[in-house]
């Protein structure tokens, strides 16, 4: 009887951790994907990246001469 209780105690932690990971992963799948309004922010950030790349290219061109 003691070995059964010891076995259950030893398995409780990994089994509980596995269940928690499964539940967290399940909840995350439901929230994935772009939220409304994020597309505009993504477009602004991409435009800013393009602007910074252009400035960086201009700075490199100036430093070569």
UniProtKB/TrEMBL annotation:
Name of the protein in its database record: DUF2933 domain-containing protein
Classification of source organism: Bacteria, Bacillati, Actinomycetota, Actinomycetes, Pseudonocardiales
Keywords for the protein's UniProt record, in alphabetical order: Coiled coil, Membrane, Transmembrane, Transmembrane helix
Coiled coil, from the record: 35-62
Organism superkingdom: Bacteria
Ranges that cross the membrane: 6-25
